[in-house]
User: Which sequence fits this backbone?
């Protein structure tokens, strides 16, 4: 057992050689003696030493191949995910995903993965970095990286026997030495541990912030790292600027220019008059004849619109949105606004009640006049030309004509089929006569019902 | 002349006039492992107070220029890219010319390390380390220019596919993005290759260190290398793999750089000859820069026996060969412009030679095609002054080549109404000069503190490195036995 104890004290036995030939022949002897835990140390890669030592070929090329293929997959997936799946955008009409355009980057990623692997797998297979090595404690061993050669048979080898190893190595006594086990534990100072612990903890901060940003909710706007587009040295629309004479930051269009999409060359569609006829002014006037014979009002519909079921349905919908609040869903002039105005007696301030569209005076209007009223307003009604497109205004006109044809204010049609309850449409007069309507003006249907 | 010519490993210089006998890779009868180590390590081991005066003067100039570059970049960032001469129609002015110029120079290093390694050109061992260092420093200079050319440098990370709150990704169908990947991969792989090759030599420095600072610094970066043969086995395989990976990489990088131009539709750019033409030009300029750097370095640092006249001779021949390739590309461009019959293309080339920038074109042709022809003469290849001058004119010519390509096409495109004339500003000029400060600062630090020559590799081409063993019938071991007997170290 004393022999075993002695082996524990030494790392191994080192022999030094001066030239390639002697180290090669010694290496062959150690190999043939069946040792496993030993190595040759040379200042440069010696040709043929692998065979002399019986070193097996490394698996490094296979690791590199594997990582190269991983790089291939990652490179392709990266480009497919970013440009063909997650954020698809058209560039010069090129396909979103086409192999030729993706070859260069894929190639570079393959090389990058393989090169990193070749380097780091080399370090890993050689167990580097390995800064503390008992051999480095031997002064003579430092010559091995310059001009000498060495063989070290480690005591850990199961066949290790100091005498036999010395005999096999066959070097002169002066060139043989025992390498002691490195007992000096190079302890790192305490502050180093503390700093490393802090640094390790600190490395988790960015990651945890990213996770929090991804999954937590916040009422504050996201933190913007580079705010360079948030504050721009420019004038915004509808603001003032002393730089121009009129003090406005915006410029008026040059006289005579027509903004895109605002050319009004179809008189029937845009003004409700015959093509080329005088265009009525944008004024509202109070009832009566619409300017008499001065204007050639269109009695039919413009050629630009097609009056069909869909058109009528569009008109019903638009009427409900824009007109019904005053004129009532049925066109009787009893919309919510009209009822409220009646309740507070708004006529004292100049309010004119909305016209019941089934009235004779409303029926007397030509289509062009109705369109003109819808566009530019009349008496206390405002014009809707800026809110409703011309075609939609014509659709509303069509719907009003449908109401006029199907609804009556008072008299029952003579040809009403038997068993059908005729419900005359109430008028504003009925509402104003009703006492209840004064108390409950806002409810649209109730006063109408009571007035019946 | 085969690579395994026995005389390649002979230690006696013999028959200089006999072309069938090669000069030895390491000159001098008494060269052995110790003397090679000493020659290289003594440069880095020189005490600071005994630093070569020429080095100190060069370093002072380089650092001043580097400082100037830093201030100019600050001026650029705080003011905007308008400080350059880039303007409609030449939005690619000097910054892109400088980028391509530096990237091109960066090609010789990896070419020497990788392609010549794979083809077993053993003469590379004397110059590969310095050439690799040159590559990395040139790529650093190259990367600076597109980096500051993007305008808002603080969002340079948009070049990379990083998830962001805009939910946008870069366009992988653009050659400019391929360029980002190619150049950054090239920088990474070159750095790995350079550092990995240096690890055993750093271990040599560590083991020779005379004080603790050096021992710790070189000790950390040599990763605990012992010279174990089992480590050498994996290491050599990794080195071979890196060389095999770097070889297609070095060819791809300048091809991708040329795509920046060739994939556009501008007359004079939109041609298929660009990738091989750019790669040949890159090797051409790279070898010129290696010569420019190596001739003074071997002179000042006493490395004449390791970086021999044979190295210089071989590099002069490569310079002339690649110069002829570039000249061929110039002429074939004209031929295709005429033969293709496209009016704009023909005009672009006539305009290059005889238009506004005729002077740039003829500087390019003289420096790149005519002047290197002097290397047909063996006598002139052996005259270091001639070699030095030709290597410098080559670099001037290659800068003008990139200028001619970028600027003549941009200022004379399809529509005469968009024609213009590019003039550099003082910032353009001083920034280009400053980039040399960056390059030489890094290179001089490398010369002073790191192993300038791959010590371990040079030892492998010494005759003593080869066993005369019983079962070694390799052809070159015969050369070893013919050489001087393996020397004992003189401890």
Assistant:
């Amino acid at each position: 057992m004393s022999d075993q104890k002695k082996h524990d004290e030494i790392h191994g036995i080192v022999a030094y050689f001066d030239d390639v030939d002697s180290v090669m022949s010694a290496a062959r002897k150690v190999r043939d003696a069946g040792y496993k835990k030993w190595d040759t140390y040379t200042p440069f890669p010696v040709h043929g030493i692998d065979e002399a030592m019986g070193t097996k070929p490394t698996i490094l090329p296979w690791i590199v191949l594997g990582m190269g293929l991983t790089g291939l997959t990652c490179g392709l997936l990266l480009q497919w995910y970013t440009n063909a799946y997650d954020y698809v955008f058209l560039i010069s009409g090129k396909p979103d995903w086409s192999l030729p355009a993706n070859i260069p980057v894929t190639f570079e990623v393959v090389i990058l993965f393989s090169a990193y692997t070749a380097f780091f797998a080399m370090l890993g297979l050689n167990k580097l970095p390995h800064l503390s090595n008992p051999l480095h404690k031997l002064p003579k061993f430092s010559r091995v990286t310059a001009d000498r050669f060495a063989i070290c048979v480690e005591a850990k080898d199961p066949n290790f026997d100091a005498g036999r190893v010395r005999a096999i190595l066959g070097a002169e006594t002066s060139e043989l030495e025992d390498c002691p086990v490195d007992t000096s534990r190079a302890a790192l100072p305490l502050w180093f541990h503390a700093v490393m612990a802090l640094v390790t903890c600190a490395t988790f901060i960015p990651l945890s912030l990213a996770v929090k940003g991804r999954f937590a909710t916040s009422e504050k706007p996201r933190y913007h790292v580079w705010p360079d587009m948030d504050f721009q040295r420019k004038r915004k629309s509808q603001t003032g600027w002393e730089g121009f004479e009129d003090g406005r930051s915006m410029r008026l269009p040059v006289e005579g220019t027509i903004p895109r999409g605002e050319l009004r060359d179809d008189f029937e569609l845009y003004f409700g008059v015959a093509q080329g006829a005088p265009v009525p002014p944008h004024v509202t006037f109070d009832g009566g004849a619409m300017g008499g014979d001065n204007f050639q009002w269109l009695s039919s519909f413009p050629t630009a619109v097609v009056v069909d079921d869909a058109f009528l349905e569009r008109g019903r919908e638009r009427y409900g949105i824009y007109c019904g609040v005053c004129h009532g869903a049925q066109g009787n002039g009893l919309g919510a606004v009209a009822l409220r105005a009646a309740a507070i007696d708004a006529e004292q301030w100049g309010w004119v009640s909305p016209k019941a569209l089934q009235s004779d005076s409303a029926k007397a209007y030509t289509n062009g006049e109705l369109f003109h009223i819808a566009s530019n307003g009349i008496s206390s009604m405002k014009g809707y030309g800026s809110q409703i497109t011309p075609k939609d205004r014509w659709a509303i006109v069509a719907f009003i004509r449908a109401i006029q044809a199907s609804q009556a204010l008072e008299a029952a049609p003579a040809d009403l089929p038997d068993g059908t309850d005729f419900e005359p449409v109430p008028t504003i007069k009925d509402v104003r006569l009703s006492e209840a309507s004064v108390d409950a003006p806002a409810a649209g249907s109730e006063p109408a019902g009571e007035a019946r | 002349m085969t690579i395994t010519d026995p005389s390649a490993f002979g230690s006696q210089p013999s028959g200089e006039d006999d072309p069938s006998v090669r000069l030895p890779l390491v000159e001098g009868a008494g060269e052995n492992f110790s003397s090679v180590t000493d020659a290289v390590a003594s440069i880095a081991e020189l005490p600071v107070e005994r630093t070569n005066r020429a080095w100190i003067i060069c370093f002072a100039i380089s650092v001043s220029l580097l400082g100037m570059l830093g201030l100019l970049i600050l001026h650029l960032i705080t003011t905007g890219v308008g400080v350059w001469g880039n303007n409609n129609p030449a939005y690619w002015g000097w910054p892109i010319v400088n980028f391509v110029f530096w990237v091109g120079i960066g090609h010789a290093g990896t070419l020497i390390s990788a392609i010549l390694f794979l083809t077993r050109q053993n003469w590379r061992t004397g110059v590969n380390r310095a050439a690799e260092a040159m590559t990395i420093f040139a790529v650093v200079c190259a990367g600076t220019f597109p980096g500051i050319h993007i305008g808002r440098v603080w969002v340079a990370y948009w070049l990379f596919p990083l998830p962001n709150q805009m939910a946008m990704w870069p366009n992988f169908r653009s050659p400019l993005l391929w360029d980002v990947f190619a150049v950054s991969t090239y920088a990474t792989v070159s750095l790995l290759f350079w550092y990995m090759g240096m690890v055993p030599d750093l271990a040599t420095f560590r083991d020779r260190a005379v004080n603790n600072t050096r021992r710790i610094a070189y000790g950390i970066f040599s990763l605990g290398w012992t010279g174990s043969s089992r480590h050498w086995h994996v290491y050599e395989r990794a080195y071979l793999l890196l060389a095999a990976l770097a070889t297609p990489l070095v060819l791809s990088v300048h091809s991708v750089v040329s795509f920046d131009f060739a994939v556009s539709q501008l007359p004079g750019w939109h041609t298929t000859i660009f990738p091989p033409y750019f790669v040949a030009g890159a090797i051409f300029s790279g070898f010129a820069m290696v010569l420019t750097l190596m001739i003074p370095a071997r002179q000042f640092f006493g490395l004449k026996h390791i970086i021999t006249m044979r190295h210089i001779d071989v590099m002069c021949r490569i310079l002339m060969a690649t110069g002829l390739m570039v000249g061929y590309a110039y002429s074939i461009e004209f031929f295709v412009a005429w033969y293709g019959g496209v009016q704009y293309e023909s005009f672009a080339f006539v305009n290059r030679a005889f238009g506004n920038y005729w002077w740039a074109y003829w500087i390019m042709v003289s420096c790149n095609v005519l002047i290197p022809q002097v290397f047909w003469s063996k006598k002139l290849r052996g005259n270091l002054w001639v070699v030095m001058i030709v290597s410098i004119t080559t670099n001037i010519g290659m800068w003008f080549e990139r200028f001619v390509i970028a600027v003549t096409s941009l200022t004379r495109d399809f529509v005469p109404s968009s024609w213009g004339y590019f003039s550099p500003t003082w910032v353009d000029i001083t920034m280009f000069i400053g980039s040399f400060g960056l390059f030489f600062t890094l290179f001089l630090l490398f010369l002073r503190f790191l192993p300038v020559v791959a010590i371990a590799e040079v030892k492998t081409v010494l005759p003593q490195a080869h066993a005369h063993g019983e079962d070694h019938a390799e052809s070159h071991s015969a050369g070893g036995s013919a050489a001087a007997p393996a020397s004992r170290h003189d401890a």
